[in-house]
Write a structure and sequence with these properties.
The protein is mainly alpha-helical and about 220 residues long. It is built from 10 helices and 4 strands; from the N terminus they run αβααβαααβααβαα.
Length: about 220
């Protein structure tokens, strides 16, 4: 017969303090949300985002706003639902304006890390699709977004592609496949000699045309 241990069992630790702490955090996040929310639609709308930007001392067009939308997994440009706000800020442990202001520069660094950037890059395209069932971006928006996201590491490619987009007449919009492949083009293709560019591979035609234009017009 096994001997009964005389060692006292460990007391069960209550999870109540942690639960209370989490509840208080959510309460503060909700209060933070209410500061900027339009109560008639229970969302932070573009006017609320502008007020948030003013309080953060950043422009509405600052990349920090796009990064925040990415971290909140926002579905509609210029709007944050309470669930997006609560879930996103809770994961960041941010419940005040001061904490958000301090966190934003670090979030920008995170977005541009190699292992995170592709997700951020794809999100940015989707986030700028402002109409229901919209699948393409107009050329002007595409150019602004490229300058915001890719200009620093790939300034020559971006400047040349933007110039091409503005003078060509065939394309009025850019789709996700073209958007994705331009980033791959910047990563993989030698610039500006294109010695490893093979137009027989599955590149979008717009990039074939871009390379032809550069070879014939820009670097002839």
């Amino acid at each position: 017969m096994p001997r009964v241990s005389k060692r006292k069992s460990e007391p069960v630790r209550s999870s109540e303090p942690a639960a209370k702490k989490t509840a208080k955090e959510v309460e503060r996040i909700d209060s933070f949300f209410a500061t900027y929310a339009n109560t008639s639609i229970d969302m932070i709308d573009p006017e609320g985002v502008e007020k948030l930007c003013a309080d953060l001392n950043i422009e509405y067009t600052d990349i920090k706003v796009l990064v925040l939308a990415w971290k909140l997994n926002a579905k509609k440009q210029g709007y944050f639902t309470q669930d997006e706000w609560r879930t996103g800020l809770k994961s960041l442990h941010v419940d005040t304006l001061k904490k958000l202001q301090k966190q934003l520069p670090e979030l920008v660094k995170e977005a541009f890390k190699k292992e995170k950037f592709e997700d951020f890059y794809h999100f940015s395209f989707r986030y700028c699709l402002t109409e229901d069932k919209q699948k393409n971006l107009d050329i002007e928006t595409t150019c602004e977004l490229l300058k915001l996201l890719l200009h620093s590491p790939y300034d020559q490619q971006v400047d040349s592609f933007i110039e091409f987009l503005k003078i060509q007449k065939e394309y009025k919009v850019i789709n996700m496949d073209q958007w994705t492949n331009f980033y791959r083009f910047c990563q993989e293709i030698d610039f500006p000699d294109f010695k490893n560019y093979d137009d027989g591979l599955a590149w979008p035609i717009i990039l074939d045309n871009f390379v032809v234009w550069l070879r014939e017009e820009k670097f002839a």
